[in-house]
User: Fold this.
Amino acid sequence: MSTPNLLVLYGSQTGTAQDTSQRIGRQALRRRLSVQVLPLDDYHVANLITESLVVFVCSTTGQGDPPDNMKNFWRFLFRKSLPVGSLCRLDCAVLGLGDSSYPKFNFVAKKLHKRLLQLGASVLLPVGLADDQHDLGADAVIDPWIASFWEKLFSLHPSYADVIPLRDDEPLPPTYTLSFLEDSTSKSEERLRIQSDETVPSQLHPFPARLVFNKRVTDHSHFQDVRHIEFDITGSNIQFAAGDVVMMYPCNASEDVEQFCQLLRLEPEAKFTLTPSGNTAVPARIPQPCTVRHLVESVLDIAAVPRRSFFELLSTISTNELEREKLLEFSSAAGQEELHSYCNRPRRTALEVLADFPHTTAEVKVDYLLDLFPEIQPRSFSIASSLKAHPQRIQVLVAVVRYKTRMFHPRRGLCSNWLASLDPTSGDVHVPLWVKRGSLRFPAEQDRPVIMVGPGTGVAPFRSVLQERTAEGKTNNVLFFGCRSQSKDFYFRSEWEAMIKAGQLTLFTAFSRDQEEKVYVQHRVKESARLLWDLLANKEAVFYVAGNAKEMPSSVRDALQEVFQLEGHMSSAEAKQVLQDMERMGRLQTETWS
Assistant:
């Protein structure tokens, strides 16, 4: 049997599936195999019928949706016209990365696995279902799954067993070479380009939107800083509807950029060009030439908690015995509990790890920067405004993420803190952004009621839809809003009151800390059983939930089930079935985030 080339294809939203795919790719190179690692939408899917060995690594986003960089592949693979048996030459394996706190856990991987079987592919292993909620994270499933994959492959191709792999301490060649320019005056295109009239902003070509205002909307005595932010999108060609999301790339803090350059002895204003090795493309977000400052500030994710691959690569670079021993432990399957205790639980950043391993950091060659650090991923925010109420504007509601761990400095969310730091009163500030269609769909019928449950910043998409619906004369709107205190974090209170006065809104509030016994939105849902039953059973209302993915969505769902049991005189099983039917028909929609 001839030795096949290995193709690793991934669908990744936050970079984890990409990192896992690259890890499989590195292991293949160490075994001296021919391997190619690609995002699914960069691969010509019609060629799949000629492939002999493919590993698919994919995450699940939103409510069971494929990641953005595999959507074209997904549409093609599920064409009804594809003949059964068209993938009969293919040996493959599917590894899913998910989070069991979401209802459609690893839905994409399960569905892909099933579809590949339908098309005649031979599946080498049961589908891997990694779970972020596991004590040791996704690696608790990924490690044994990858080990089983190699085992299976060696049993199918015994010739692999004769190959002497590279030693673990032997570094692989870098993916890119950085060539520094002596002439620092050569121009690079790091400034955001203004869109031409024909261009619709996208991830590759975001629009530099001017920041109009950046207001704190929580009381200054409140622990949580929440911002109401507005962007001017005049001239962008951006169109959006209620439920859509705005995407943006954040930047690293200037003090982190300076510290990083000091640790690695880099000159921030030095310019370089990037040359890829093999058939790898230069990342689209890196201009040619590029300054070190732009690379570190806008591309490298130095403030993220590093993945295990970071420690694996550092261990191959390190010559300091003590540091190398620790890095090897963190890289090993046996050292994952120790790594989680050191890194994941206290949320230690990659930059802080470099500071903890000074001898190794001093040995890092600049060519390895793009192998060590993943690219900063775009962040998404529900749009909190409608073009019908605020033409040429996008507004968002952003909770600034800051919290304490056992680390000396508080932990900070990269994008929310970057946004909070931007001050439009000190001069023009532009943020590169684009819009993506959201998962929520709202009814077009004039009289059809909508019921919205949006505690905290979960109310953002519902402000957008309420502005849109009231502009269209749709007044059958019910909103359940919850927060801690009526006086501290009751977002958009005056707007809701104006809508109530105009007969455009029925509002139920739950202020959890304003009385001795905590009251949440799910309690208000149960208390409003008669109204909700009438709207849902007699008026074909659509029910929406948006907000934090922890307990709230399932608690609201349980409350709604109780409403059906009480008012509809149903058994628990019957009420559950009604909820499932509503979900299938788009009458129960959820948008949650962790």
Residues 189-196 have pLDDT under 50 and may be disordered. The radius of gyration is 26 Å. The longest helix spans residues 139-156.
